[in-house]
Amino acid sequence: MKRQPVSISRYSEPGTIADLAAHLARNNVSAIEIETPDGSLKIVAMAGGQAAAARRPIETAKVPVKAGDILARAPMAGIFIPAHPQHPDRAVQTGQSVTKGEVVAFVAAGLVIVPVIAEKAGTVGEIVAEAGALVGYGSTLLKTET
What we know:
The protein is mainly beta. The chain folds into two domains: 8-44, no CATH class; 67-144, CATH 2.40.50.100. The chain contains one helix and ten strands.
């Protein structure tokens, strides 16, 4: 029997969100992200009713980004790290040429560090995310020179 894809609307009802948030709190889990073919939902627990002090808002583009301008996107939600902690001197810089498939930065979630791969060859025109900023899955991190 073929399984039907689950719609994000199943999880976006206020009662369901409250139940999920309560479940996270009971199990000492700080966040959950649910993705379906028609959307996604992220619930982040707040410490003492306030957002965690070390967290920053998810980076969003300030102006619409054309697909051709994007050099690299976040492979997962997490904290943007411009260079691997063991090689802080290797951070990508504005004006630097990169090749398609080159590791240009990292995103960290807890102890997991995932490389950010250049989607195409080009020259780094802008580093969109700030070091230490919380970024969402697919967020634009680096843009090419225009």
